[in-house]
Design brief:
Structural class: mainly beta
Number of strands: 23
Helix content: under 10%
Radius of gyration: 18 Å
Shape: globular
Mean pLDDT: 87
Number of helices: 4
Distance between the termini: 40 Å
Largest sheet: 23 strands, parallel
Amino acid sequence: MRATFLYFACKVTSGAYIELDTDIDMNEVAPEGISKITIANVTLDGKNHAIKNLVANEGFLNYSLNSAYILNLKILNFVNRGTDNFIKLGNSCRLYFKHCIISGINASTGKIIYTSTGTYSSDVRFVATDEGGCMINVNICSGEFALGNVKATDSYVKLSGENWSDTTRWYLNNSYVEGKISGNSFYDCYNSVIDAECSENSNFTVSNCSNLLVNTDKFTGTFSTETGIKKVTAEQLTDAEYLESIGFPIGVE
């Protein structure tokens, strides 16, 4: 399987389907790290296995066209370093993560996620399956989290780190964002929670949202409109009875 993964990392082109049959420790496979992988239309099914200790010297995945799927995979303890983005999509690309866990550090001056801007024709989607949604836990010690579209369904996102900002367009459905965000816009967000600090007191664009809870004990920004926004305190956010009373469908244990 290590050979298969290395072949995927270095050689694969469009239309491949790859499964992992074991965990992979990249300290054993490529301890000095790997270069960026450029692929298109590839499905990688992790079968609930993990790729651990991945060092991306100049970004990890570069999608040039069309759609790709990463399923049932854990990417744990990664480090993105150098100057490039960890995941980069070209125009009209869509990358779907289904039932995945992604955890690591962005030590790069690039971004964790970069999608095309202007027309916003590409996006990274964290998608729910019967096994659940995705979990993303990223420490941003340099660079930014995202530029462009990030769409999350039944997913949890935790962003930590200091002195960073981004221009993410969040599309949230039954999802929870914790930690810190900055320079963002909220589009088509439903039944979701922003439990995050705002790293700058700026105006955040809001469009077509419903039941988007914002913890105002942490979040200090203002909104272009408060339609669809429900402001709560940290105490109220952990009070299932209160959430039910305001019509929020997700209880808190």
